[in-house]
Design brief:
Elements lengths: L10 H10 L1 E4 L3 E6 L26 E6 L6 H18 L8 E6 L8 H16 L14
Parallel strand pairs: 3-4
Antiparallel strand pairs: 1-2, 2-4
Helix pairs in contact: 2-3
Length: 142
């Protein structure tokens, strides 16, 4: 189970991660990562229940989107449980205050745990790569 302080619940938080964040697509899932910190500037209701997090440093939070296209309710719940378990083990690698949304694609319903793990790791590796440094635009300085 994903700890309460690490869960995305509000629609606004999901929208922030999807609209402002970077995206990495894989055959089984799409991962959105926003490193903005506290997105709305509003206090989180669970902030009083974060004893292991330094004061003023919000922990990374994750949310999951698994639509009916993935399969029946049983299959969707299985996919969500697998993704929650995988993300829980990787939250410590994410920058403090980041928001992550994992959207399962229809093929995730028939995928194994290891296939989901491989795609999640590949997507996170791509998203967590160092941002490219500012370079001179092509054609400038000629």
């Amino acid at each position: 189970m994903l700890p309460s302080e690490n869960r995305l619940r509000r629609r606004q938080d999901f929208a922030t991660a999807v609209k402002r964040g970077r995206r990495a697509g894989r055959p089984l899932l799409v991962v959105h990562l926003s490193r903005d910190g506290d997105p709305g500037g509003q206090a989180d209701r669970t902030s009083d229940f974060r004893p292991h997090v330094a004061e003023g440093t919000p922990s990374a939070r994750a949310g999951f989107v698994v639509s009916k296209a993935v399969g029946s309710a049983v299959v969707r719940n299985l996919v969500k449980r697998r993704l929650r378990h995988l993300v829980r083990d990787r939250l410590s690698r994410l920058p403090a205050g980041s928001l992550i949304v994992v959207r399962a694609l229809p093929q995730a319903g028939s995928a194994s745990y290891h296939d989901l793990e491989h795609d999640l790791d590949a997507a996170l590796k791509r998203l967590l790569r160092a941002e490219p440094t500012a370079t001179v635009p092509t054609g400038a300085g000629r």
